[in-house]
Amino acid sequence: MGVGSPSPHRNWVQNPPPNPGKEAHQRETYQAFDHLQQLFHDHCNALVAKQPANDLEVIRRAPATRTVGKSWRKRGPRRRGLRCASGIQRFSWTHVEVALRMLRREARLRREYLYRKAREEAERTAQERKDKVRRALEENRLIPTELRREALALQGSLEFDDAGGEGVTNHVDDEYRWAGVEDPKVMITTSRDPSSRLKMFAKELKLVFPGAQRMNRGRHEVGALVRACKANGVTDLLVVHEHRGTPVGLIVSHLPFGPTAYFTLCNVVMRHDIPDLGTASEAKPHLIMHGFSSRLGKRVSDILRYLFPVPKDDSRRVITFANQDDYISFRHHVYKKTNHRNVELTEVGPRFELKLYMIRLGTLEQEATADVEWRWHPYTNTAHKRVFLSAE
């Protein structure tokens, strides 16, 4: 090695050999840091959503610069805080840990719920297969072709089944376990940039559901709406859509895990269209559910009736959901007794028709990932002949 030749050790220090393991570890570290930073910002937004309006302001300071020698260097962004009536609350990594625990808990509860749903669906499918074999044996008919290979095994398992245990536990026990114990908390909002008629319709829906609250949509995203509703204990989120000023869609999303039902609105008549109606009663109404005899019909009936609290016996307010040919007619009345035999009905409004076209198992922001429980297929050859909400 000559006098002017560079040292091999120096070259190795300046240009170290590639280390794939170290690079992968650094890449994973950067990804984890980015994920924690996103969780931190989401947690900040959740804290902001919990605070009352005009009482809290998020402080965001731009990165400052300072002179070091003769060169300019950027100083990192200052700490982020909340300015409220009590002063400034600073965030630390403790808040990130709290956010991580909250997300882990929500993910765990969601996994447990999906596991129970999967087990229930498997048990229901097995029970339907056994019922088909039982009916074929009782009526002395041929066993269905798809069940002939396992007919003997199904017949053997029928000996251990007894009557009276159908429908005891199902997903309704998990989704609506507090129904009848605690009053539902309903939040009503609209699509973005609503017209004046859609705002009127949202106000009238607020009068339909006792204790409901209406929220202006503004520029809020669906995910932010759902997170704010979960943080404030909202049980159901209703979103109304329109087309050229006419309400055409209603989404009912049950929180925190679902389901989410999608309805089409038609023949909408609002209270604002009828003069001299007076004030609407806000008492807890009695419900009339008519024509929901199929399994899907009972599912839709549960989604709709659990939006209302338990009424008192002396309530004079009645709300009707009447199904006919899969069109659900909504009517709102109050009644009074004229004598010991006759009752006088007065329609309060609004009135409209609902047409179900989809049910998803998740909440509203999980539209891209949630499983579809049921979907209406209008372009099949027998779509105009079939009814789904009634067994007739």
TrEMBL record:
Signal peptide as annotated in the record: none
PROSITE patterns: BRIX
Location (main, coarse): nucleus
SUPFAM superfamilies found in the cross-reference section: Class II aaRS ABD-related
Segments of this protein annotated with the region Disordered: 1-25
Pfam families per UniProt: Brix
Keywords: Ribosome biogenesis, rRNA processing
A GO term, aspect molecular function: rRNA primary transcript binding
Domain named Brix: residues: 184-365
GO cellular component: Mpp10 complex; nucleoplasm; small-subunit processome
Subcellular location: Nucleus, Nucleolus
Keyword rRNA processing: yes
GO-annotated biological processes: ribosomal small subunit biogenesis; rRNA processing
Listed PANTHER family: U3 SMALL NUCLEOLAR RIBONUCLEOPROTEIN PROTEIN IMP4 (PTHR22734)
Oligomer and partners: Part of the small subunit (SSU) processome, composed of more than 70 proteins and the RNA chaperone small nucleolar RNA (snoRNA) U3. Component of a heterotrimeric complex containing IMP3, IMP4 and MPHOSPH10. Interacts with MPHOSPH10.
Function, in words: Component of the 60-80S U3 small nucleolar ribonucleoprotein (U3 snoRNP). Required for the early cleavages during pre-18S ribosomal RNA processing. Part of the small subunit (SSU) processome, first precursor of the small eukaryotic ribosomal subunit. During the assembly of the SSU processome in the nucleolus, many ribosome biogenesis factors, an RNA chaperone and ribosomal proteins associate with the nascent pre-rRNA and work in concert to generate RNA folding, modifications, rearrangements and cleavage as well as targeted degradation of pre-ribosomal RNA by the RNA exosome.
Protein name: IMP U3 small nucleolar ribonucleoprotein 4
Species whose genome carries this gene: Bos taurus
